[in-house]
DNA sequence: CGTACTATTGAGCGACCTCAATTGGCGTGG
DNA sequence: CCACGCCAATTGAGGTCGCTCAATAGTACG
């Protein structure tokens, strides 16, 4: 087994340092999150609006489908998932969210949440009152732009997932998913090759449109093929290049 | 065969009437499109920004992946599709757009288009310069809200498609798709039961994550089961209730 | 009226699912 | 500290839904 897998929590440093202060100004995520590009008074105005920080236990729900939209949430640490249900219990996970990403924007049209949001591990979120944010965005050019950019980004991510589920084979989906986790971890200043999966195999399956057994089998097969090593929630990517090559 | 199917162009009335004038104020789509909720000077300001109308032939591309974002487009008549490509030619259609819907918002993040947009039939679009729209949205509260709402709506539609492709069986997907067309036609003031499919079976398959043969076979099976009648691009839904029941 | 494209239908196959048994990891209480 | 129980993950066997390949039929358009 790779030695990296023996230090599972090594990657958490950046995130846990972020606890020290509440101010967006001092947040390690400011260049990934809503404050990107804001300075001085604008940044202060945004900071004053961010209500309070809330800590979620693993499995705790941040909001449920149908609830009225009151807040957007910026993830400060931890990981979340959003999911949609089909009457008979079938579930589709529409996204996994990491620190610096925004939750709740799917609810602006209709003013009600269209999915459930649940913490995959202990997580901290910043609460941003939607009404006041919208108002502030009118006064601060950069904030409006940032908000539009974030929403557009969400549309892009969903199209990409659509492409994955609609047109990729099972093994391509799993690899593409790992690749995406790798990129996002790297953006957070964490390792691009040693990935912590915050979610279960079931969740991965419900995200990729696969059965959990298929996900598990593919992990094993990729391991045999030398693409990666798996140990529970920890995946070490042996060769990012080889993975990229297989994704065309 | 249903008599409705013998009058294929009957549904086009509303749309073709929209040609008479350019002003948003007088557009039959104003309550579906960007101007929703705008009045007086605000509406005039928006109108003055909408550059010119452009007519697309069937198969003509409005924009391609990778092109810089210059305009958003509001569909005035006809129908469009947006699609994403996978290196080896596999394609995923991410949406079909009908009059009153906006194209291009996926490009705001990154300032480049992330998909191709192509006309499914002769179509008219209004061109809205993105830079100026963003600026105007800062000054007009309702416009900013409308823009955010439209983007959020797009996120919602994509999640729904995700749920369809990820967790529904082939027959459920096709029915859900027809059901969605039915609702959208009704919103445009057209029939909810007599649907014109502007796209090929191939396109439907590429949208639903199915082979074109599967789509065709299911149309035939639904016809045998008495759910609908098909004749080329025209589908008559015999019982919306029965369809809704099968969708749970 | 012919040509080219699109849609339908059939046969056979394979990827992924379902069901089921086993193994492994981890917290809890004896 | 170990034993137990619980849940997550792995692995196997067999079935099926939807795909691929291929032939035919229908439709649009010059």
Structural overview:
Two copies of one chain form a homodimer. Chain A has 248 residues and is an alpha+beta fold. Chain A has two domains: 3-166, Jelly Rolls (Sandwich), CATH 2.60.120; 169-246, Orthogonal Bundle (Arc Repressor Mutant, subunit A). The first copy, chain A, has helices spanning 13-17, 40-49, 130-139, 141-167, 170-187, 201-208, 212-224, 240-246, and strands at residues 53-56, 61-63, 71-77, 80-85, 91-97, 102-103, 116-119, 123-129, 194-196, 228-231, 234-237. A four-stranded antiparallel beta sheet of chain A has the order 1-8-3-6. A four-stranded antiparallel beta sheet of chain A has the order 2-7-4-5. In chain A, strands 9-11-10 form a three-stranded antiparallel beta sheet. In chain A, α3 crosses α4 (141-167) and α6 (201-208) packs across α7 (212-224). Chain A is globular. The two termini of chain A are 28 Å apart. Mean pLDDT of chain A is 90; it is low at 1-21. At the A-B interface, β5, α3 and α4 of A face β5, α3 and α4 of B. Chain A binds a DNA duplex (30 and 30 nucleotides) through α7.
């Amino acid at each position: 087994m790779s030695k990296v897998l023996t230090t599972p929590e090594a990657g958490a440093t950046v995130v846990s340092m972020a606890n020290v202060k509440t101010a967006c100004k001092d947040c390690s995520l400011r260049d990934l999150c809503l404050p990107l590009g804001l300075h001085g008074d604008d940044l202060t105005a945004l900071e004053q609006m961010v209500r309070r920080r809330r800590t979620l236990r693993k499995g705790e729900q941040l909001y449920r489908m149908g609830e009225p939209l009151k807040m957007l949430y910026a993830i400060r640490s931890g990981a979340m998932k959003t999911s949609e249900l089909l009457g008979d219990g079938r579930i589709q996970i529409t996204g996994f969210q990491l620190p610096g990403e925004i939750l709740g924007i799917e609810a602006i049209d209709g003013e009600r949440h269209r999915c459930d949001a649940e913490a995959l591990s202990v997580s901290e979120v910043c609460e941003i009152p939607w009404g006041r944010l919208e108002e502030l965005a009118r006064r601060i050019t950069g904030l409006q732009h940032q908000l539009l950019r974030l929403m557009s980004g969400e549309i892009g991510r969903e199209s990409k997932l659509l492409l994955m589920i609609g047109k990729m084979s099972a093994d391509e989906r799993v690899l593409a998913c790992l690749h995406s986790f790798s990129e996002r971890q790297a953006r957070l200043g964490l390792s691009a090759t040693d990935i912590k999966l915050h979610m279960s195999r079931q969740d991965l399956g419900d995200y990729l449109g696969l059965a959990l057994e298929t996900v598990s089998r593919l992990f094993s097969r990729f391991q045999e093929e030398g693409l990666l090593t798996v140990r529970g929630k920890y995946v070490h990517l042996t060769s990012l290049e080889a993975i990229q090559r297989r994704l065309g």
